[in-house]
Each structure stands twice: as structure tokens, then as C-alpha cells.
Amino acid sequence: xxxxxxxxxxxxxxxxxxxxxxxxxxxxxxx
Length: 31
Description:
It is a single chain. The chain has about 30 residues and is mainly alpha-helical. It has one domain (about 1-30). The chain has 2 helices and no strands. The model has no long low-confidence stretch (mean pLDDT about 55).
């Protein structure tokens, strides 16, 4: 049970914040 919860948490967590964070960081970084 613990393994499933831990695997599901890190999977969706980094994916969701990665989108907004990537855009803001990639924007100024690309320029």
C-alpha cells in the first residue's frame, strides 16, 4: 500500500507543477 501511494504521489505531482514551472523557466531561459 505504501509503495502505491508513494509512486502515485511523485508521478502526478512533478508532472503538474512541471508544466507551469517549465513555461516560466523556459520562457526567460530561451530568450
